[in-house]
Amino acid sequence: MSALADKPAESRARGAGQWFGHPRGLTVLFLTQTWAEFSYFGLQAMLVYYMTQQLALPQAQASLIYGIYGACAFFSPFFGGIVADRWIGKTAAVVIGGTLMMAGHFAMAFEPLLFPALGLVAVGNGLFIPPLAAQVARLYEDGDTRRDQAFSAYYMGINLGGFLSPLLCGYLGETYGWHWGFALAGVGMAVGLVTYLVGRRHVPGDESAKRERSARRPPLTRDDRRAVLALLGVMAVVVLFRIAYEQSGNTIALWIADRTNRELAIGDWSWRIPATWFQSINPLLIITLTPFLMGHWQRRREQGHAANLFGRMALGCAITAAACVVMVLAAIDYRLGGPVSALWVVGYFVLLTLGELLVLPVGLSLFGNLSPAQIASTMMGAWYIAKFLGSLSAGFIGTLWSTIPAEWFFAIGAGSTLLASLILLVMASGRTPAPVAATQSGGG
């Protein structure tokens, strides 16, 4: 057997040729994630409208289903990570998960299959996401500063798919029928799956999984346990952030459709902006702003400034609270004069995106850097428990949309993110665990 064949998959991937200054596997994983998110966010952008308009479900019921579906899609990665780590390996988990998601998106084209389809997407997402993110981390040797940049780039891939899908799937759904939009989302997942299969030789996966299953896993060290506790603390705080953040595709979508003036008129020409298109503002801003933030954090590192990650996340939560306050003011404006300017929603998404970039990529990078190798996929799955709890809470809070004034509804989101910001400020001013203090995140 050749020396190359004797090397673990990680070593071969790390030693392979590079594209754009990074291992080729990053491009493969970037494109795979982009198409997967194209399908996922395509469904998400249409789901509330599909349930309220096509299926004629009451708003409260539609918001609750939306929240429960999102919660299940974010809780399943915890178990998917365990399955990938302990039994089937990363590559098999990605392929099986992608196949289930593709089937679920195509099943959405049939009205009686709503719940089975959402279940397939949620379960598939659980198998697909954790090993894919863990493979990004394992493309780099420990201490390689490019890993943080890789997670920011990976996060851009997520949002590239999120930007394109409302424009394409949403337009197709609103114009020709929701089933066509869901079908296009399924095609996107198929493209992502093919991309991964064609480029899988460039990413770490199967050999390491077999080796880890056959070898005894080393016990967690004291530093490992401290890192896990720190990550669980961050995860708990992010739940509060998610309560407000997850409304962007739920009640904010209803606000856009029912209470926003979407007419564009120039002389005798007029056009009504599709409601789903507003869901592209957030990922477009992320794609635009991420390179500037990456450059900013890189310059600060070169100047010797230590990264206070808890402080950075606290600022992000405070900015998100400001986004909710913008919607409080928009709700007051609506009460005074009916449908309001779309600029209120644009301002909301600008602030929401700035807050997101200071919270979620930082948390994702922390989980990629600090997770002990023997439970890497499991910890990546644990990160999504925050999404699960936040989405579930957001779904239940969404049932209040039709029963309390909108300004009070948006004030709930402002309060939850302000509380998260205060907790993170306390964490930032206290004694930071050693593993966290040593981390210099380029994300966010």
What is the architecture at the second tier of CATH?
Answer: Up-down Bundle
Mean pLDDT: 82
Shape: globular
According to CATH, the fold-level topology is Growth Hormone, Chain: A
Q: Can you walk through the features of this model?
A:
This protein has 444 residues and is mostly helical. The protein has one domain: Up-down Bundle (Growth Hormone, Chain: A). The chain is 76% helix and 4% strand. It contains 18 helices and six strands. The strands form three sheets. It has a two-stranded antiparallel ribbon with strand order 1-2. A two-stranded parallel sheet has the order 3-6. Strands 4-5 form a two-stranded antiparallel sheet. A hairpin with a 2-residue loop joins strand 1 and strand 2. Helix 10 runs parallel beside helix 16. The longest helix has 31 residues. It starts with a helix and ends in a 7-residue tail after the last helix. The N terminus and C terminus are likely disordered.
Keywords summarizing the entry:
two-stranded antiparallel sheet, mainly alpha, single chain, 18 helices, globular, Growth Hormone, Chain: A, 76% helix, 444 residues
What's the quick description here?
The chain has 444 residues and is mostly helical. It has helices at 3-6, 9-15, 24-54, 59-88, 90-107, 114-137, 146-176, 178-199, 206-214, 222-245, 251-259, 281-302, 309-337, 343-357, 360-370, 376-398, 406-429, 434-437; strands spanning 18-19, 22-23, 260-261, 263-266, 269-272, 340-341. It has one domain (23-213, 221-437): MFS general substrate transporter like domains (Growth Hormone, Chain: A, Up-down Bundle), CATH 1.20.1250.20.
